[in-house]
């Protein structure tokens, strides 16, 4: 049995008052009452809606949910990772501003085996995005971020729930 609350606890920057769009009763029932929730039956019929959610949590509708604009990110519960091709990852990164933050593998007896968290890139200065977390700045302003260049730095983006 999938622990949807545990999956939700892995979503970064999910705060009270965030607008969450999902196509899953299980995820909708596991969110706290402090999140603003929109439940829809399928994302195909939601593509033209101008609502920009903070988070989209999708179950088995990756091809539609990753085409929606979002402020913080998209989470997909999938049975395989076949859609993570180089072409799709390039599109998600350059066109949608999303990168893989974490992949959580579930028990192999579950119908869905992977929970993939795509997070929005952090700032407008890095890729000049209008809807990122940093305040809008002039594009002529020089880069001011301090990037770490430590050789021993490690970031684990894979986890598992058994």
Question: What do you see in this structure?
Answer:
The longest helix is centred in the middle third of the chain and has 9 residues, at 86-94. With 162 residues, this protein is α/β, with parallel strands linked by helices. It is globular, with a radius of gyration of 16 Å. It has helices at residues 4-9, 25-30, 62-65, 86-94, 124-127; strands at residues 19-22, 36-39, 53-59, 70-78, 98-106, 114-120, 158-161. The chain has a single domain (4-161), classed as Rossmann fold (3-Layer(aba) Sandwich), CATH 3.40.50. α3 (62-65) links the parallel β3 (53-59) and β4. The protein has a seven-stranded mixed beta sheet.
In short:
The chain is α/β, with parallel strands linked by helices. The protein contains five helices and seven strands, in the order αβαββαβαββαβ. Helices cover 18% and strands 27% of the residues.
Provide the fold topology.
Blueprint: H1 4-9, E1 19-22, H2 25-30, E2 36-39, E3 53-59, H3 62-65, E4 70-78, H4 86-94, E5 98-106, E6 114-120, H5 124-127, E7 158-161
Parallel strand pairs: 1-2, 1-3, 3-4, 5-7
Antiparallel strand pairs: 4-6, 5-6
Counted by DSSP, the helix tally is 5
**Low confidence ranges:** 127-133, 135-148
What is the CATH architecture descriptor?
Answer: 3-Layer(aba) Sandwich
Name the strands of the widest sheet in spatial order.
2-1-3-4-6-5-7
Please estimate the helix content.
10-25%
Distance between the termini: 10 Å
**How many β-strand stretches?**
7
Number of domains: 1
Shape: globular
Beta-strand percent range: 25-35%
Could you spell the SSE succession in H and E letters?
A: HEHEEHEHEEHE
- Determine the mean pLDDT: 78
Main sheet makeup: 7 strands, mixed
The CATH class is identified as: Alpha Beta
Look up the CATH topology. Answer: Rossmann fold
**Rg calc:** 16 Å
Based on helices, strands and strand pairing, what is the structural class?
A: alpha/beta
